[in-house]
Every structure is written in C-alpha cells, then in structure tokens.
Design a protein that fits this description.
Layout (H helix, E strand, L loop, with lengths): L10 H32 L4 H28 L4 H10 L4 H24 L3 E6 L4 H18 L3 E3 L1 H5 L3 H4 L10 H15 L26 E4 L7 E4 L20 E6 L2 H4 L9 H8 L3 E5 L7 H10 L8 E6 L9 H7 L13
Parallel strand pairs: 1-2, 1-7, 5-6, 5-7
Antiparallel strand pairs: 3-4
Helix pairs in contact: 2-12, 3-5, 4-11, 8-10
C-alpha cells in the first residue's frame, strides 16, 4: 500500500523555516554582545559572576528589608536618650558590663587574627559624643592595657581645637577635612616605631574583592542633599583610586585602616579622608581605607577574617568610637550587620 502523498508546506511555514537559522544567529549575537558588554563594564573576571552577584544582592536586599522591619519595630522612641542612658544610667549598668565583656571577647579574637596574619595591631580612638566620651575612653584605655595593644587616644589632641573646626558641625558630627588631617598626622607620628615591621605572611590565592564596597564605582553620594560627596572605588572594592599590587612591594609599609564612618569619611572626597591623607603625607607607606559606615567590631572582625587579611598588611589600625560599645543592641546590629561569626544578623551580607 502506497503511503499518502506528503502535503506541501504552506508559504508561511516555508518562510518561518527559512528565517529560523537567521533568528537563532541574531539571538546568539545579541546574547554574545550582552556578555561582552557586561564583561567590559562590570570589572568581574566573568560576566556570569556579575549576573549571579546581582541575583544574590536581590536576595540580600529582601532579607535586609525584613531585618530593617524588625529594626524599626525594636527601635526606641528616642534613640539619643537611649544612648545616653546606656552610658550613664544606673539601670543600664548590667547591660553595659555585658556589652563591655562581649566587646573584649571579640577584640581578643580579632587580635588573634592579626597575630596569625603577622600584622601589628594598633587601636585608634577618635572621640565623638560628649555624653559617652569619659566612659568609652576609660574602657578602651583599660582594654589596650589588658591586651597590651598600642592605643592612640586623640581626645586631648582634639580638645585643643574648636569642635566646629574638627567636625562638620553644626550640620554634621563627622570629621571635617581638618579633623582628618589631625588624625593622619598623629597616626603617622604614633606608628613611626612600627613602620619597619614587615608581615611574613603571603597568600597565593585571595578573594576577588578586598573591600566591602562595590568595585569600580564612581558616583556622587547625596546622603545629605546639601553635602554631596564623590565616592570612587578600585576594582578590589576599596575606597581607593588604584588597585593594590601583588606580590606586594616590600619597600613600603602596608597599613590597613579598619573602622566605621570616621574611617570611611562621609561628606568628603576620598583624598580628604585620614587614610588617604596619611598615605600622601607619609614616606614609603601604603595606607588603605577599609572603613564602612555603621560597622562595629563584629563587622570589622568578619571583614578582616573574610577579606582584610588577604591585603597582607604589616599594620592594622582598628579605629574605635564611642558608639561601638552601644552597637550590640539588636536593633542597631540589624541595621548594618554584614554577617559573620559574631553578628546577630548573620547571613545579611
């Protein structure tokens, strides 16, 4: 029995079959062009990593919204009064002692990480608020003595100047350019005995990012519309115009500054922050700004463990502030926590 004759293809189907290879080719060119474009623009070694990173960021943002919802629910009606009560009220004595003990535990762990990296650890205390200054200054002084850590306390130095010149008052309580110049000069003077030290630790592999900022970023940050400032980062995620070289130059002392907004330098251009000023004023030093606004010791510990130690610093400057001791309240930690061993917001990275 003969098979039925094949029906001839309609003109429409003939056109579709003829165009299919061309459409597939155009789609491949489009996809290839997009990957090529992102490969050039993203600063990532593979374009796919950029895609995965953005997807991970969306998940992180979702988690952060949940955490911030809890933060708003837990936040006291008057946070300033809550901070004052923490440092001064007798009713907060037990909480203060608990937070101070926790800080010392994390600090000793941080000190251990620095020793493993063969980096000299130095504490830098910058005074901020009047109501907490005496309590926190005494705590950091006692901590430095107990752990035999060099401490640069700038309280008396800042007292020589008007607060409106050292800080961005009355508009903002962060350091002015002049305040950063003071920190840079005093820090270089204080570190002079340690500048000959060279870490013997070197890594054959390291993370792609060495800082917690977005790599290859160049934008104006209008956090305060009347005080916009420019933030530039290198491909390693550090607030720095150039990348750190590896293997690192042994004729320079590499100093890693870890801290909060007083190290990051909000409302100022990068070159006006104390790490960058210290690098420009010092001789044979690399001074790296790894500060992030809102970070406290638990964040700084996880940052150094995950990324900072791979910078191979000779000296680690840990900048501390009065509100570091206040920062263990859950509603504060959930606002900024980067995740890690000691963070209540673990996983929010």
């Amino acid at each position: 029995m003969n098979p039925p004759p094949r029906q001839p293809l309609s003109l429409r189907k003939k056109v579709l079959f003829a165009l299919a290879p061309l459409l597939i080719l155009l789609a491949a060119i489009e996809i290839g062009t997009r990957f090529w474009y992102y490969q050039l623009k993203s600063g990532y070694p593979l374009a796919l990593l950029h895609v995965f990173d953005r997807a991970a960021k969306k998940v992180t943002d979702f988690r952060l919204k949940i955490a911030l919802g809890k933060f708003q629910a837990e936040r006291p009606a008057d946070p300033d009064k809550h901070a004052r009560d923490f440092f001064n009220a007798d009713s907060m004595k037990e909480t203060r002692e608990k937070f101070f003990a926790r800080y010392e535990t994390i600090f000793r762990d941080f000190q251990r990480l620095c020793a493993e990296a063969d980096a000299r650890l130095v504490l830098l205390y910058i005074p901020s608020t009047e109501f907490s200054r005496n309590t926190s200054r005494a705590f950091f002084s006692a901590l430095a003595e107990k752990t035999q850590t060099p401490l640069l306390d700038l309280t008396d130095t800042f007292a020589r100047y008007s607060s409106t010149t050292v800080y961005l008052l009355p508009r903002n309580a962060h350091l002015s350019r002049f305040g950063n110049q003071i920190v840079a000069d005093e820090l270089l003077r204080f570190l002079e005995p340690h500048l000959a030290h060279r870490s013997k630790v070197a890594y054959s592999q390291r993370p792609r990012r060495l800082g917690d900022l977005r790599p290859n970023h160049d934008a104006i940050w209008p956090m305060d519309p009347e005080m916009p400032y420019r933030v530039v980062t290198n491909s390693q995620g550090l607030r720095r115009n150039s990348d750190l070289p590896f293997p690192r130059p042994r004729d320079k002392t590499r100093i890693l500054c870890i801290g909060d907004s007083f190290t990051f330098g909000p409302y100022l251009n990068g070159l006006d922050c104390y790490p960058q000023l210290a690098e420009s004023r010092g001789r044979n030093v690399e001074v790296i700004n790894a500060g992030i606004s809102g970070y406290t010791l638990c964040d700084e510990y996880s940052y150094f463990e995950e990324r900072g130690r791979f910078i191979e610093p000779d000296i680690v400057v840990l900048q501390v502030l009065d509100n570091d001791l206040y920062g263990f309240f859950p509603y504060v930690m959930r606002q900024f926590c980067r995740g890690g061993k000691y963070c209540i917001g673990r996983g929010l990275q």
